[in-house]
Write a structure and sequence with these properties.
Elements (H helix, E strand, L loop, with lengths): L6 E3 L16 E6 L5 E2 L14 E6 L2 E10 L12 E7 L5 E6 L12 E11 L5 E9 L6
Parallel strand pairs: 1-9
Antiparallel strand pairs: 2-3, 2-4, 5-6, 5-8, 6-7, 8-9
């Protein structure tokens, strides 16, 4: 009998995990002093140096601001090729540099509505599925 494959985040504290009742979300810091969000979350605000930062789940949806497609494997990247890469504007006031789940350049454009997904990126040496986040075109948003 095979044990179920474990799922582990690529880095702790970046996003919600499958089964989280909040759904797919990034975990951002929110500063009580200046009311700005920062990602990844940290205990000190990168904008005002405030130290009263909470962690909040944000970024379920956004808008593609900038994009490209990566066809050559960068050092340390173990996921599939090609993959989309870009910057997504979030309604919370952040721009997030992110992997894109769509790798066809013709399907990507500035202003494209996107949704966050948490999905396996690769299988590690221990046999665990390593989860990462990416944005994909929202359903019904054709080029």
């Amino acid at each position: 009998m095979n044990a179920a494959m474990a799922q582990v985040p690529i880095h702790a504290g970046l996003f919600t995990l499958p089964g989280d009742p909040r759904g797919a979300r990034l975990l951002a810091g929110h500063c009580a002093s200046c009311d700005k969000y920062h990602f990844p979350a940290g205990t000190t605000c990168p904008y005002c140096s405030g130290t009263e930062c909470s962690v909040e789940a944000i970024g379920a949806r956004g808008t593609l601001w900038l994009h490209t497609v990566v066809n050559a494997r960068p050092p340390g990247y173990l996921g599939p090729l090609p993959y989309g890469f870009g910057v997504v504007d979030l309604p919370e006031g952040l721009r997030v540099v992110t992997r894109l789940a769509e790798s066809r350049l013709a399907e990507l454009r500035p202003g494209l509505p996107v949704t966050l997904e948490i999905a396996p990126l690769f299988t590690n040496d221990a046999g665990d599925e390593v989860l990462s986040f990416a944005y994909r075109p929202a359903r019904g948003s054709s080029s």
